[in-house]
Amino acid sequence: MIKRIIPITVLAFSCIIASCEKKPLLSDYVDPGIGTAHSRWFFYTPAAVPFGMAKLAPSTDGHLGNTGGWQAVGYDARHTSIEGFANFHEFQIGGVVIAPTVGKLQTVPGALDSVESGYRSSFDKKDESASPGYYSVLLKDYNVKAELTATKRVGFHRYTFPASEDANLIFDIGNRQGESGYVKEASVTYTDDGRIEGWVTTTPVYVNIYQKGATVSMYFSAELDKKPTAFGSFVKDTVYPDSKTQTGVGAGLYFKFKTKEQEAVNVKIGLSYTSVENARLNMENEAKNMSFDKAHKNATDTWEEYLGRIEVEGGEYNDRVKFYTGLYHALLGRGLASDVNGAYPKNDGGVGQIPLNEKGKPVHNHYNTDAIWGAFWNLTQLWAVAYPEYYSDWIQSQLLVYKDAGWLGDGIACSKYVSGVGTNFTSLAIAAAYNCGIRDFDVNTAYEAALKNEVDGKDRLAGAGKLDVEQFVNRGYSPYTTGLSMRTTPEGSGFGASHTMEYSFSSFAVAQMAKHLNKEDDYKLLSKLSEGWKTLFDPETKLIRPRDDKGEFIKDFDPFAPWIGFQEGNAIQYTYYVPHQIDELIKLIGADDFNVRLDSTFQISQKNIFGGGETIDAFAGLHTYYNHGNQPNLHISWLFNFSGKPYLSQKWVRAICNEFYGVEGIHGYGYGQDEDQGQLGAWYVMAAIGLFDVKGLTEINPAFQIGSPLFDKITIRLNKDYYPGKEFVIETLNNTKDNIYIRSIDVNGKPHNTVQLPFSDVVKGGRMSIRLSDTPNTELNK
């Protein structure tokens, strides 16, 4: 045998090379394209930072708008052409489009099936790249490379043109985009100092439903780094050469350039919801002298920090892709609505001012937000454990609206009420945050607002939702009234049964806050209301069944029928909507029957991919036993933790993670399901790390239920401003595809014989070890 001698210098060099190998970026696991077939307007906005205002993205059909305000529109993975790049993407908010073209000037967007009919270009997927904070694509018909990135309130566009005498940039301001609704008014000006500035005011569908007459306005101030050879304004397809300003529906500006081969034209655009001046200030503060590449790097670094709050290691590669894409969507939605100086849009259309600290900075931010319906089974749990500072800001945003308008809003668009589902869970989310120790907000006002939300129906605004809450308080249930169809009034609701379940749960949550604050009378009242669900429990069918205004169970009861007493669900699904008193529901049904029924639900539902099957429709699963594509069912796979068979929760949660969630454009969050600004993504995150609370952290001393983690090691980095611990580590032993059951649990080196883990133990920091097996441990306590 001949021994090979390797020189020491070579060994040293090899060690240097090995040590310099870069650890993969967490953002590399994120695929923004997952689930983009049939997705909402705000879903695909890769050029953004976490919770940002500037959310830049390509639009394949955004100019079409949508009739109901919620349908899929904007970017669709199945489309092959792009019309332009919008800067605002939020729930009920969208607009300010920039589009590069070459050749003939066109000022209206082309149709999907007719690229040449307006400004629009075909593209190939191979020429498209998207990652957190960045997007690029080659527009084939113009041979223009488009690139996008952003800071919190500033968008960056870089368009690299071919050699041309006819390179164009279109600023389309006065036309409908996405969920924004019709344009009421618009204005755009090319200023003497070379800025493009203006605003657009829209009338979103949901704003019109919940706050009639209110509008949403978007403001901008943009800079070009190249002087145009010509410019003009337009109103739809009517062009006004040399015109520097235009107003009205359809208003916009165009700019023409002479470009060399591979010459880039950069656009920097400050955004605001309060004024052009503040849009300019936001750009000055966040992006003065900042290049596109620097903004891109900063965005990537920001995403790494936010994604790194929960670091997972090991497990299947596709599970890491699902995990970080889900976390990305949870951090992408519900973005900034206030400016760097603390100005924010008020509910009445005016401009409010957030207080400033001793350094002249706002003491908190204000955010737009989709409704919080169902978010206690995903987003608020994630916020509480890893992003408490955002949770606090979210609450303070809601309190601004309460102080301005007198009622909490469930969803808000520039502080305008957009309840979405006609109910209101903001009070529950406030109470849960308080229970978790997040209390750096005006607690007295928060409690006042939360209590009012639960018990007060007098002169209640439509935007506050729960118009039938007085019926619930007086009767113990909200009556189902057939003539109301999908409407809710002070006399009752077409969704009376689901409202009863929801109001019972939120009453329980606020009761716990009342107990914390020694509000004994309120605690007793709210605790009594929390049992309202029992008035609808039908002992014959052992299901929740709507009652009419005479107190009678409805006739011809079909447990699978959605919309008849139940919003976006049916009696089979909503019967489990008793998370706060699940032990009592189990007793009423009987533990054995409960387990058989629930287990059968998942056995049957697995054949339909736990929801709507492969039907590309947001409501495809409403007639089924279980519908993971919508909110009312998102807790029930975890209910076995309360019925004596936690191993069945471990089994079915894993199955949902593996089968409902995918890594494709069409099969992402189910097939074309409604992800609602991060809710389904956040559910996957919590399920994948094995921590979830059926009660949404609403108990006075909240606890997670422990599930079967998908990864070998999970490190949750805790916010030291809120929690005593530095990090909480979860490690799994024997973690394989087949080992889905928990064999044993150790917490900080000590045996832990229950699947309940106090929230306080997590945020103290420490280590939990979970040994997995391919056989259930039937001795593990609930």
Automatic annotation (TrEMBL):
Mention one GO molecular function: hydrolase activity
Sequence ranges assigned to domain Glycosyl hydrolase family in this UniProt record: 278-773
Under Pfam families, the record lists: Glyco_hydro_92 (PF07971), Glyco_hydro_92N (PF17678)
Q: Which residues form the Glycosyl hydrolase family 92 N-terminal domain?
A: 29-272
**Keyword annotations:** Calcium, Hydrolase
Cofactor(s) demanded: Ca(2+)
Record note on quaternary structure = Monomer.
Entry protein name: GH92 family glycosyl hydrolase
Species for this entry: Dysgonomonas termitidis
